[in-house]
Amino acid sequence: MSVNGPLRRELIVTDSGGRPIADATVTAQGFGTQNGAGWGWFDDYWPRVFRTDVDGKAVIELSVQHLAIIPENCGSVTFISVSVEHPSFAKEERLAYQTAESIVLSPGVVVRPQAVDAIRGQPVTTELYAVSGGQRRLDWNYENGQLTSPRLNTQSADGSSFFRIVRIPAESDAVSVLFSDVVDATALQERNGVATPELPLYPGVPLSGQVSDNVPRPLPAGGRVIATILGRPLISSDNSEPAGGSGRCGWSDVAELHVDGTFTFPSLPRHSHVELIAVCDGWVSMPESTQLEDYDRIHGTQFKSLSAAGQVTSSPVRLEREPVETVVSMVPTGSCVFRVVDQTGAAVELATISCFPNHSTSAGSTWLGYGTRSMDVLRNRQSSVAADQWSDHFTRVTGADGSAVIDCLPAGSVMATCTMPGHQVISPASYFPGFDGITAVIRADRESEVQIQLLQVGDKMAMPEAMSLSGRFPLLLRVVDEAGRTLPDAVVRTTGVNFEGGDTAESWGADWRVSDHRTVDGGLVLLEIE
Fold first, then answer.
1. Is residue 410 part of a domain?
2. pTM above threshold 0.90
3. Residue 324 maps to a domain
4. CB atoms < 10 A from the CB of 81, how many?
5. Long-range CB contacts (< 8 A, 24+ apart) of 304-308?
6. Which of 182, 231, 259, 412 has a CA-to-CA distance to 400 between 20 and 30 Å?
7. Tens digit of pLDDT for each residue in 213-272?
8. pLDDT tens digits for 379-435?
9. Is residue 390 a part of any domain in this protein?
10. pLDDT at 143
11. What is the number of domains present in the chain?
12. Inside any domain, residue 522
């Protein structure tokens, strides 16, 4: 089946007795293609939600027009990731590979935990949150001092039955956060499908440290350390610690890297393997192989295997119940000068260069320096709350000489892209089948150079000479500084307008629908004038 479509997948949803389940909701989450790429579902363009009929069958269909957005040389669609939900059953996550793929739903178990302060021995009924395991986070209901879970899937191997209870006081800092240990719902006693365990909440454990001495002090401002914890229960249903990546019930935090090279996480869950990623101008964390081998031997873990991906690898630290201090080994980064020319060899100004270095933890890989604070995300479940994005370091716009310099790049092969309206890259060194990525080879503590040649294939995007006074006028801007660095969180305000036939700018009309706009990551802002 070509990626050009049409695409058709049939799913059969049943209960454990083989009986079809009608009116179950099947939600497409993403898909894979033959070149090995994983894709998120294109929610704005594709149908996403499907329902089962009386025979328990749901059909996911995409037309040729839908699939035209995918590069043809990505190959055929190999799987679709879906979630299946029904009020009487636990949510199920699945990768659907074949036609008529069968998905069995289980009743699951509802958990209504009784939280207790482990130090004071008193019930805790306020400011409670839950972190659930599995591929997708599940929202719990909190009402009248009682947390109630959705139906937790006790049959799935993705860790959907794992959870942790957290108390986060609204007006205090992270020091006051209380954590339960990670619990496996399959190990709980339940009655009529409901479990009411008493769960002690413990104070978090402080973790502090510094970067290695080879990093010159004082450090420039803006560095950070990301802590990632892949939560696992101390005891699971078979009285053993789960192996591999199963049982994800994670926690993450971001700490400032001070000018003296120190950092502090005031409160992290006890009995955890904490994975640290540190970034600052000119330096990035990278544990030595012997350090990972020793850690794996002592703790029975497999962190050494993460280094095989060729990405920046996390530095593990074990937390039990007492405060821990650590030193994070750092290595120098490199920089790269990207020179963009057209087919005649002339410099191309205002081309956008983006690099995509990743860091890797047990929870997966993501853009180098990206981190979230779980505490903030739980407080505001409707938005993805992230720390300031280090990724802004990796996008630049070429100047008049056609060059842009991107620094803070880890040594090794890094994917880069070049975009310019009306142009395409000529014969790029493909980084991945189906993508016009350029491979930049970065050397530590050195400046590399890559030349990119563009071919004009259409009209350049230009400011219109005039616009109609009727209708809407959208304008996408990218804000950069003199060095071509993109500027997020810059305020863009429209103050005047030139009318056709006039020589001077008129003041902005008081009744015109426009307001201050702030740029987002990448320095982008969309102005819409009506």
1. no
2. no
3. yes
4. 20
5. 306/360, 306/361, 306/362
6. 412
7. 999 999 999 999 999 998 866 444 443 343 333 346 889 999 999 999 999 999 999 999
8. 876 555 444 566 678 999 999 999 999 999 999 999 898 988 888 888 555 555 556
9. no
10. 93
11. 3
12. yes
